[in-house]
C-alpha cells in the first residue's frame, strides 16, 4: 500500500486551519507505513507531535520510532479514551492548548478500533464528527487510523462521513461522503428504555442532597469502589444541578445495574443545543457547561439524547472485577 502523507501536500491544502484525514490500513505494517512518516515529518519541522492509539498499536509505534519516541507524547487510547466523551477535552485539547503559538501541532488519534463495544460506538462516531467543529481554524493536523480489515462496514462508511480527507490504497483525496452534520443527527437517537428493575425518583433543589445520597447508596450496594463512589457523587450532583438550573427545575433519575456496569440516567425537559456541550474545556468565565465536561472525566461512558422535547443523559461506571 502506498500512503500519501507528505507534509508539503498536506500543508498546501490547509496551511492555517484544521486538517482531519482518515487513514485506512489493513495490516500492522500498513499502520506503521502511514503513521511513522507522519510523526517523523512533525519532528523534522520541530512541531509538537502526539499519538493516542490503542495499546497494541502504541507498542509497535514506539518500537518503530526508536529513540525518536522520546520526543513524542504517546498515549494509550484504550485507557485515556475509554469514554469517548473525554478525548477532546482530556487528550486532544490539553495537548494542543499546551502548544499554543506553534505553527502547527500534529496528532495521531485512533478512537475506534476492533473491540470497541456496540454500546460505546455512537459516542465514538459523534466524537469524530465533532472534531471538525472543536478544532475549526486551529493549526492542527489530526490523522485518524482505521483498521479497514477489523472494523465493520458501517464504521468505515461513518469514517468517510466524519473526515473531509481520505488516505487509502488509492492515495489521498477528498471524501465524497463527508457530512458530519448528518452523523450527529443520525446518532442522536433515543436511548434504549431503562429496564423495569430500574429505580426511579425525581429531584429538585430542596431534595438534591437526598437524591445524591440515594444514588451513591445504590452504587455502594452494587459494589462500586470508594473512589468510584466519589466520582458517582460528582457526576450525579452535576447532572441533577444542570437539570434543576436549565431543565425545568427538576430532574428524573433512574439507577440500575446492567451486565458489568452500574448505570444512572437523568432526564429533564431541557434541550442541549450546543453539540460540543460536555466535550470542550471551559474557562472560568464560562460556568455553564463545565459540569458536563467534569462528568465526562469521571465516568466510564457518557451517552445522551437531546431534542426540543427533553434530554436524557446516561452514565456508566464499570463494576470492580467485571
Automatic annotation (TrEMBL):
Position of the signal peptide: none
SUPFAM superfamilies, per the entry: ATPase domain of HSP90 chaperone/DNA topoisomerase II/histidine kinase
Superkingdom to which the source organism belongs: Bacteria
Keywords, in A-Z order: Kinase, Serine/threonine-protein kinase, Transferase
One example GO MF annotation: protein serine/threonine kinase activity
Domain Histidine kinase/HSP90-like ATPase span(s) in chain numbering: 204-315
Residues in MEDS domain copies: 20-164
The protein's name: Anti-sigma regulatory factor
Amino acid at each position: 500500500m502506498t500512503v500519501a502523507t507528505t507534509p508539503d501536500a498536506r500543508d498546501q491544502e490547509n496551511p492555517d486551519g484544521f486538517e482531519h484525514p482518515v487513514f485506512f490500513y489493513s495490516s500492522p505494517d500498513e499502520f506503521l507505513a502511514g503513521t511513522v512518516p507522519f510523526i517523523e515529518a512533525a519532528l523534522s519541522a520541530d512541531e509538537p507531535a502526539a499519538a493516542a492509539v490503542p495499546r497494541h498499536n502504541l507498542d509497535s509505534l514506539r518500537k518503530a520510532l526508536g529513540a525518536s519516541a522520546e520526543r513524542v507524547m504517546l498515549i494509550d487510547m484504550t485507557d485515556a479514551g475509554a469514554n469517548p466523551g473525554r478525548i477532546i477535552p482530556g487528550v486532544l485539547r490539553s495537548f494542543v492548548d499546551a502548544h499554543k503559538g506553534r505553527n502547527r501541532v500534529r496528532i495521531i488519534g485512533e478512537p475506534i478500533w476492533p473491540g470497541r463495544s456496540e454500546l460505546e460506538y455512537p459516542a465514538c462516531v459523534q466524537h469524530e464528527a465533532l472534531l471538525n467543529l472543536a478544532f475549526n481554524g486551529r493549526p492542527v493536523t489530526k490523522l485518524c487510523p482505521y483498521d479497514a480489515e477489523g472494523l465493520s462496514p458501517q464504521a468505515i462508511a461513518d469514517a468517510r462521513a466524519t473526515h473531509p480527507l481520505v488516505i487509502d490504497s488509492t492515495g489521498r483525496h477528498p471524501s465524497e461522503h463527508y457530512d458530519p452534520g448528518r452523523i450527529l443527527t443520525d446518532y442522536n437517537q433515543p436511548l434504549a428504555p431503562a429496564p423495569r428493575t430500574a429505580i426511579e425518583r425525581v429531584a429538585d433543589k430542596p431534595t438534591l442532597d437526598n437524591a445524591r445520597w440515594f444514588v451513591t447508596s445504590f452504587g455502594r450496594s452494587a459494589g462500586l469502589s470508594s473512589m468510584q463512589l466519589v466520582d458517582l457523587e460528582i457526576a450525579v450532583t452535576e447532572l441533577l444541578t444542570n437539570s434543576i438550573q436549565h431543565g425545568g427545575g427538576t430532574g428524573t433519575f433512574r439507577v440500575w445495574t446492567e451486565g458489568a456496569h452500574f448505570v444512572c440516567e437523568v432526564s429533564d425537559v431541557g434541550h442541549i443545543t450546543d453539540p460540543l456541550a460536555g466535550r470542550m474545556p471551559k474557562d472560568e468565565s464560562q460556568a455553564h457547561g463545565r459540569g458536563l465536561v467534569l462528568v465526562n472525566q469521571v465516568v466510564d461512558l457518557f451517552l445522551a439524547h437531546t431534542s426540543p422535547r427533553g434530554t436524557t443523559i446516561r452514565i456508566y461506571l464499570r463494576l470492580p472485577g467485571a
